[in-house]
Specification:
Blueprint: E1 29-34, E2 44-48, E3 51-57, E4 63-67, E5 81-83, E6 86-88, E7 95-96, E8 102-104, E9 122-125, E10 128-132, E11 156-164, H1 168-176, H2 181-184, E12 200-204, E13 207-217, H3 221-224, E14 234-244, E15 247-255, E16 263-275, E17 278-287, H4 298-323, H5 339-359
Antiparallel strand pairs: 1-10, 2-3, 3-4, 5-6, 6-7, 7-8, 9-10, 11-17, 12-13, 13-14, 14-15, 15-16, 16-17
The structure holds FE2/S2 (inorganic) cluster and fe (ii) ion (FE2).
C-alpha cells in the first residue's frame, strides 16, 4: 500500500483499504489456531493470508502445516484422512508427508519431484499456534510471540476465535480507539464509559502505543467486579500497544494503596487476514485476580457479546468498501481520537516497506 492511495490529490484523506489490493506482510508470525483446535486426528483447514492451509499434529505432538490443495486435481486435502503422520487425498489417494511432499501415488511406483505443495513453518506457544507464510529461510521461531502468563496458574483467562468479514486493519483501528465504547458497546463495555476523551498516543520502533490514566478514582464496574473495592479510590493506567499487524496487547494496571502488587487486566486482539476483506480474530481476556470463580462466566460472556458488536460494525463498513467502485476515493474525516488508528496505518506501511526492501 503506497502513500498515494492514502490521499486524494487535494490532500483530503481517503479510505486506505482497497479490497482489490492485499495489505498484509508475509514475513511475520501470525496466529493460525488455538492449540486445542489442532489434534493428531483432525485435519483443520484455514484460509490464512489468502492461502488455504491444512493444519494437523504428528504423533509426537508437534504441529505441521501445508497447503490444503492436492497437487493432482486440486481437492482440499482436509477432505481426506490421516495415515500415521501423513495425509491421504480422498479423490485418488495421493499421500503427503508433513513437508507437503507426495510420498505415494497408488497407481505407480515413483512420484515426480514436482509432486509437492508448500509447507509452512509453525511454532506452538500454547495456547496459540503461530505460522510463518513468508520466505521459510527468514523464519525465526524465537520471534513467535509467547504469552507465558497464560500458562501461569496465578492468572485466569478466556479466549475465542471469530471470523470477521472485514479487512483486518479495521479491527486494528477499532482496538486503538476506545472512544467507541459508550456507543458500540452501550450494553456491554458501555459500563466502562471512561473513554470520553482521546488517549495519549505515540509511535516508536514500529510500535503504536496509547496510554490513558485514571488517577485516584473508583474503579469502573467491569474491573471492580470480582475485586469489590467498594468504591475505594485507586489509580488505573491503561496501556494499549499495536505490536505488529498481527498483535495488539492491552493492559489495565490497577494500583490499590492497600496492596503492594498491582492488579492486572489484559485484552489481546490477534488478527490474521483470510482475504483482503475478511480475517480471523482471536481475542484473549486475562487477569491476575478474581481467580475463583473461573472467568468462564460473566467475564467471557461480556467479551463475547462486545466483540460481536464490533464484528457487526466492521462488517457493515467493509460491505460499503466492497460495493464502492473505488474505495480509495471515499473521503474520511479523522478525529483526534483516531491518532492511534492512523499510526497503525503507518505501522503497516513500515512492515510492508521493510518486507519489500528485504525482497530486493
Ligand atoms: S485430486 Fe487428490 S489424488 Fe486426485
Ligand atoms: Fe469494541
Amino acid at each position: 500500500m503506497q502513500e498515494a492511495i492514502m490521499n486524494r490529490p487535494n490532500g483530503a484523506a481517503c479510505q486506505p483499504y482497497d479490497p482489490r489490493v492485499s495489505n498484509f506482510p508475509r514475513q511475520l508470525w501470525w496466529v493460525a489456531a488455538h492449540s486445542a483446535q489442532i489434534t493428531a486426528d483432525s485435519l483443520v483447514s484455514r484460509k490464512l493470508l489468502g492461502v488455504d492451509v491444512l493444519l494437523s499434529r504428528r504423533a509426537d505432538g508437534t504441529v505441521w502445516a501445508i497447503e490444503d490443495r492436492c497437487v493432482h486435481r486440486g481437492l482440499p486435502l482436509s477432505m481426506g484422512w490421516k495415515q500415521g503422520d501423513e495425509v491421504v487425498c480422498r479423490y485418488h489417494g495421493f499421500r503427503y508427508d508433513t513437508e507437503g511432499k507426495v510420498t505415494c501415488i497408488p497407481t505407480q511406483n515413483a512420484c515426480p519431484k514436482t509432486a509437492r505443495v508448500d509447507s509452512f513453518p509453525v511454532v506452538e506457544n500454547p495456547p496459540f499456534v503461530w505460522i510463518w507464510m513468508g520466505d521459510p529461510a527468514a523464519a525465526d521461531p524465537a520471534q513467535a510471540p509467547d504469552f507465558a502468563w497464560l500458562r501461569d496458574p496465578g492468572w485466569v483467562w478466556a479466549s475465542r476465535h471469530m471470523n470477521v468479514r472485514s479487512n483486518y486493519m479495521l479491527l486494528k483501528e477499532n482496538v486503538l480507539d476506545l472512544t467507541h465504547f459508550p456507543f458500540a458497546h452501550k450494553s456491554t463495555f458501555g459500563a466502562l464509559d471512561d473513554y470520553e476523551s482521546a488517549a495519549e498516543f505515540s509511535y516508536e520502533d514500529g510500535v503504536v502505543t496509547f496510554v490513558k490514566r485514571f488517577m485516584d478514582q473508583p474503579l469502573s464496574p467491569i474491573y471492580d467486579r470480582d475485586l469489590n473495592l467498594g468504591g475505594r479510590h485507586v489509580d488505573r493506567i491503561d496501556m494499549g500497544k499495536s505490536i505488529s499487524p498481527a498483535e495488539h496487547f492491552f493492559t489495565a494496571t490497577i494500583r490499590d494503596p492497600m496492596r503492594e502488587e498491582p492488579y492486572l487486566f489484559r485484552f489481546q486482539h490477534l488478527t490474521t487476514p483470510q482475504t483482503n476483506s475478511s480475517h480471523h480474530y482471536w481475542w484473549v481476556i486475562s487477569r491476575n485476580y478474581g481467580l475463583d470463580p473461573h472467568p468462564g462466566e460473566w467475564f467471557e460472556q461480556i467479551a463475547s457479546t462486545a466483540f460481536r458488536e464490533d464484528k457487526e460494525i466492521l462488517e457493515a463498513i467493509q460491505l460499503r468498501l466492497n460495493e464502492s467502485p473505488d474505495p480509495t476515493r471515499m473521503p474520511e474525516v479523522s478525529a483526534i481520537a483516531d491518532r492511534g488508528g492512523l499510526l497503525a496505518r503507518r505501522q503497516l506501511r513500515h512492515f510492508l516497506e521493510r518486507e519489500q526492501a528485504s525482497a530486493t
